[in-house]
Amino acid sequence: MAKKESSGSLGWPSVWALAAGGMVGGGIYTALGVVVSVAGQWAWLSFVISGIIACSSAYCYIVLANKFEESGGAFTYLREINKNGIAGSLSWLLLLGYVLTMAVYAFAFGHYLSFALNTSPLVTRLFAIGIMVGLISLNLAGVTKTKKVEIAIVSINLLALIGLAVLGFMQWDTVKLISGIEPRPLWSAPIGAASIFMAYEGFQLLTYEYEDIKKPKKILKPTIITAVIFVIIIYAIVAVGAVMLAGSLAIIAQKQVSLSIAARNALGVPGLIIMTVAAVFATAAAINSTLFSSANLSKRVANDKELPPFFKKTHNNVPYRAVILLGILSTILAVIGKLSSLVEAASLIFLITFGVVNVIALRFLKANRKWISWIGIILAGIVILVLISRLSIVAPVQLGILVFLALLIILGRPALMRNYSSKSSDDDK
């Protein structure tokens, strides 16, 4: 029997804004300097390549969400096709990706605010800690996602980015794309795409709120696909416009605050203030959305006995233990982590996750639509190999840690969960 069409409160304007905001909220602020350092004048193409994978994956997420009519994202889709073990392992890996992502956003929050106020590295770290503590507290108090506020933040954020891009194009000078750096070859574009894929992960947070979306079968596909395409365009034009304003060398040298550098060059102190306000609100909103969604995903996975019972404990319907643990881990990484390593590690995890979703969708897509999934699978596979190769050269220690954690999850998780199941059975006797 078909499930009843959702009568949730989120209509298409809210879904579109939350999808676009979930991506842009932290993505471009943290990714631009990283991708320019890798791809140089081809940074815009890197965003387009990553965007194609995101677009294919978004289509597959939508098809699967409407097929199963249930929240939970990749974890739910794997459970529905009876791949419970893979679902459990992927959910653990995905939660690690969310922790890395929140760390990146907190890192960006601290650096953008600190740069505007001209404070010390210590204060920068304190800002990062402060925003994480504040948002953990709000989540624990049950004050999580206010849709109208988030939509307002998204609107301001997009206007600031579009304005920056327009100012950059008004000062068109292709020399700026390679000023102070060696020109990069065309094949550096996919390397750049691999490095910043996490900039596109935000749209899939909406798959955790399927029941809250009004008439999802009608609005999800056009709304999310257009949001992804719009974000691809935003990223591409900002990647060009910001470099036109600041030059490649400055964007790379201060990649933690690259958009503030561009805005200050364009409008002076008013530009710096505008971009700082946009950045801190956007990154804070992105942290809040990710913390809320990842904590609820933890609860969902724990209820299905693929995470320890620790994660399903709630107070006032808030999975408080998950909020605290995920928040603390993100805070630690934001303080001790390096921007490029955090972004690239998170990108690898989301590339793997999106690739899996594309593979699952193959069995449910109509024959004349399977090419959409194949594009995502092939491009994601290529970009994953490129990113692993790059990390093995520039960040072997970080890659080694990530591989170790992945193996620990894949090999150790089943034994750990069997142990919890045994204890649970003994307690029931």
From TrEMBL:
Q: Identify the domain of life.
A: Bacteria
| Name listed for the protein in its UniProt record | Amino acid:proton symporter (ABT family)
Bilayer topology? Multi-pass membrane protein
Question: What Pfam families does UniProt report for this protein, alphabetically?
Answer: AA_permease_2
Gene Ontology molecular-function annotations: transmembrane transporter activity
| Keywords assigned by UniProt, alphabetized | Cell membrane, Membrane, Transmembrane, Transmembrane helix
Q: Which Gene3D superfamilies match?
A: Amino acid/polyamine transporter I
Keyword flag rRNA processing: no
Stretch forming the signal peptide: none
Its cellular-component GO annotations read: plasma membrane
Q: Where in the cell is it found?
A: Cell membrane
